[in-house]
Design goal:
This protein has one domain: UDP-galactose 4-epimerase, domain 1 (Alpha-Beta Complex), CATH 3.90.25.10. Helix 1 packs across helix 3. The mean pLDDT is 92. The radius of gyration is 16 Å and the shape is globular. By secondary structure, it is mostly helical.
């Protein structure tokens, strides 16, 4: 069972969103593909919807924004 947004997003799109949210100005570092790398993935959230009534409340960008804010305000581990 998957809990996700149910939409496809690339690593490049994720990187671009994180750059925007964090103010990071660096560029991605690309390397040759490795054995076992997953080129494409999309979580099927139908079962979670059927069994639990799960529906995403926020889209991917908004979820990342919440995550970045949490990391900015979370107390540092001692």
């Amino acid at each position: 069972m998957n809990a996700a947004t149910g939409s496809r997003i690339t690593l490049n799109e994720t990187f671009a969103i994180l750059r925007e949210l964090t103010g990071y100005s660096g560029q991605p570092a690309y390397a040759p593909p490795r054995a076992g790398d997953i080129r494409s993935s999309l979580a099927d959230i139908r079962l979670a919807g059927e069994l639990l009534g799960y529906k995403p409340l926020v889209d991917f960008r908004e979820g990342l924004r919440h995550t970045v804010e949490w990391y900015r305000t979370a107390p540092a581990e001692a």
